[in-house]
């Protein structure tokens, strides 16, 4: 079987560049194109040149329809609006849509779930193996402990991140809520300032740190009288997310349309 051709959305960004590097170095996939927003200075040029090297035959385009026509997967760590637009383009296409975009609203996710009736979609707030294992552990610990244990999710990212809490923090909060058999929206506490009163029993708190070049740090704290349990994941290299996304794109080849996540990819479902 030929190596599947992969398109990267937003190739000039931090994750876009890392994805291009990881795919280019892979012997299991081919980088066949990069998309950018209309009017972006990279559009219409060769990716290799835009990265400061020799031409490599990978086009950068602001016309996604043309570049995804012959692709087997699109990897997308962009913005909610761009992700939804690509989802519309891919409806009924043979190309899988691998989504690492964060900041998606409930309505956005519902729209992607509807698109999954015609497209193979793999979506996750975090695509690293470690974080997905952590998610499973959080669910198990939350199920084992009662509400005497307060749950707090603390996340840290670089100063340029525009959404909070992070997609990973929300994944972890969802896992904790599922372990307790409750809906996260019903128990989430996303910020405290001023005279807030005592902590609500059973709440799941979120705290976002933004600074410097932090790639990704996530702690889930279970705190009771007399003891604390902390589950932690630290990403020190952005390539862990790119490698996970590539693994998802390869796994999705030949799969039926549907909404999948990294637990499916990793066989942890």
TrEMBL record:
> Which cell locations does it reside in?
Cytoplasm
* One of the record's GO cellular component terms: cytosol
Q: Where in this chain does the record put each Dihydrodipicolinate reductase C-terminal domain?
A: 130-266
Q: List the SUPFAM superfamilies hit by this protein, alphabetically.
A: Glyceraldehyde-3-phosphate dehydrogenase-like, C-terminal domain, NAD(P)-binding Rossmann-fold domains
Chief location: cytoplasm
Reactions catalysed, as given in the entry: (S)-2,3,4,5-tetrahydrodipicolinate + NAD(+) + H2O = (2S,4S)-4-hydroxy-2,3,4,5-tetrahydrodipicolinate + NADH + H(+); (S)-2,3,4,5-tetrahydrodipicolinate + NADP(+) + H2O = (2S,4S)-4-hydroxy-2,3,4,5-tetrahydrodipicolinate + NADPH + H(+)
Q: What does this protein do?
A: Catalyzes the conversion of 4-hydroxy-tetrahydrodipicolinate (HTPA) to tetrahydrodipicolinate.
Q: What is this protein called?
A: 4-hydroxy-tetrahydrodipicolinate reductase
Q: Which organism does this sequence originate in?
A: Jannaschia pohangensis
